[in-house]
Amino acid sequence: MSTIKGNYSNEGHAFMFYASCHQRQDQAQNVNDIAIFEQPLPKNMILHSTFVYIEEGYFQCLWEASDVDIIQQYITTTLGDVCLHDYYSVDPITAIA
Fold first, then answer.
1. How far apart are CA 63 and CA 44, in angstroms?
2. How far apart, in whole angstroms, are the C-alpha atoms of residue 69 and residue 51?
3. pLDDT tens, 16-32?
């Protein structure tokens, strides 16, 4: 699954790229159902891509935001404790897509 959605408005903020990894807690739950973010994204946050690994039960996302706290708050509010979450900063110059 690949998605681009969000509210992009720089307004003087420096944007950074972040990756998030989400491992489902309940092995019986369909990871595709978890990986869909149905709540609108906050301002100054973009979800560029979502990569779902069905057999492994996890998914990864590539985000652009003013800081990682915005992403963490959104994911915690949206997914709760359905998954274990990890976050990483991404250097867009050296990253390979």
1. 11
2. 21
3. 999 999 999 998 888 88
pTM of the model: 0.79
DSSP string, 19-40: EEEEEES-TTS-HHHHS---SP
Alpha carbon 92 to its chain centroid, in Å, reads 16
Gap between the Cα atoms of 53 and 41, Å rounded: 23
How far apart are alpha carbons 15 and 62 in whole angstroms?
A: 13
Q: Which of 71, 75, 21 is nearest to 50 (CA)?
A: 21
Q: How confident is the model at residue 92 (pLDDT cuts 50, 70, 90)?
A: confident
**Cα separation of 69 and 47, whole Å?**
14
Q: Are 24 and 34 within 8 A, CB to CB? A: yes
**Whether residue 78 has pLDDT greater than 80:** yes
